[in-house]
Amino acid sequence: MRVFILAIALTTSLSAAPVIAGNEDAKSVKTASTDPDQVIKCRKVEVTGSLVKKGKVCKTIAEWKEIQANGNRTARAIIESGAVCAGGSCGHGN
Question: Is there a domain that residue 34 lies in?
């Protein structure tokens, strides 16, 4: 939970930096944001242990794509290895 709060605080402080820095830095940020993969997208995530509370995670589109690709690779590796069995028992006689 502390890491999650720290990550949100860090992204919030970094997103305000171009506004504080001045016009020249803000112009360079605008030209860098023309790349669609560098656009920041925020998503609401459920907070573990709460039925109501939601958190907010902001990442670039490229980072979200990488997270999705890693998840797909992991799921594919688990399925191909045969490590997942119904009921948690793979017939090892436990």
Answer: yes
Query: Based on the structure, what is the number of domains in the chain?
Result: 1
Q: Which two tokens stand for residue 71?
A: 């998840």
Over residues 25-63, the pLDDT tens digits come to 444 445 555 788 899 999 999 999 988 999 999 999 999
Dist CA 9 CA 32 (whole Å): 23
Q: Which amino acid, residue 29?
A: V
CB 58 within 8 A of CB 11: yes
For residues 4 and 55, the answer to whether their CB atoms sit within 8 Å is yes
Between CA 73 and CA 42 the distance in angstroms is: 23
Dump the DSSP string for 36-84: GGGSEEEEEEEPTT-SS-EEEEEEEHHHHHHHHHHHHHHHHHHHHHT--
Q: Which domain holds residue 54?
A: 2-82
